[in-house]
Specification:
Layout (H helix, E strand, L loop, with lengths): L3 H15 L4 E6 L5 E2 L2 H8 L4 E7 L2 E6 L4 E5 L4 E5 L9 E7 L6 E5 L5 E5 L2 H6 L14 H8 L6 H6 L9 H11 L12 H20 L40 E5 L2 E5 L7
Parallel strand pairs: 2-9
Antiparallel strand pairs: 1-7, 3-4, 4-5, 5-9, 6-8, 7-8, 10-11
Helix pairs in contact: 1-7, 4-7, 6-7
The structure holds a DNA duplex.
Amino acid sequence: MPELPEVECVRRTLAPHVMGRRLAGVEVSLAKVARPSPQALSQGVAGRLVTGHRRHGKLLSLELEGGALLAVHLRMTGQLVPAAARPEAKHIHAQVRFADDGPSIWFRDVRQFGWLGYFADQAELAAGPLAGIGPDALGLPPADLARLLAPKAGRIKAALLDQRVVAGVGNIYADECLHRAGIHPEARPRDLSQAQLERLGRELNLTLAEAIARGGSSVSNFVDADGRPGTFQETHRAYKRTGQPCPACGEGICRIVVAGRSTHFCPACQKP
DNA sequence: GAATACCTGAGC
DNA sequence: GCTCAGGTATTC
């Protein structure tokens, strides 16, 4: 968290705050959040217009005049908040400033895992944070997901969380789409049918699209770039619902650990 | 492919 | 005061 839907919501709400504005620099108060360094980040972006915005998996990037990019990874608790949202003063590690002296964008991150980076062009981004990353999960044809998963010998949940297989799925949406597809999180993709894997692909697409429509899941401190939380957590069927009834059959939701991650599933709907 | 490190705050 | 939360790089 934030995962693909939350990053997508940040992208969409951030756009009106930054598009067409000229950057002045980035003031960094915690050096490790700046890549490759606070100086290189600030000098790299300074003077450039923001001309576009993209997302690949959980990585957000602003396209700058001349082909350079300002990329942001929110990791666990990162937030991008415009000054208008009156962010809490604590845990703000960087301020993205604009030449028009208008409102800055603040980078806030309680756990300090997230980062902002300057990349000279798409190739540098592709060779860096996007190296080895699989196709974006949003809109991925179910047959493609099935083909990517089919040869995997490990647990299906581990494969979904592996960004090299498919980009953007984290713990919440892995549990949610496995529940909707009726697949046990410890199942091995290799042992599943083509039909089961394609159903998973369809459910993943539906889950991500619904989550985006509801502004994402706010399970810890997630807010979009307008400071607003999402509501998709209200419709979670498995994630963090240990002991509560499965919405499909009424059985109690179970919690186990898979791939080192807390995992929630219905023992009746998701038989091994 | 699994364990560990990185972090801080929430909840016991 | 302890455990847990979890995305990803690193290390076994």
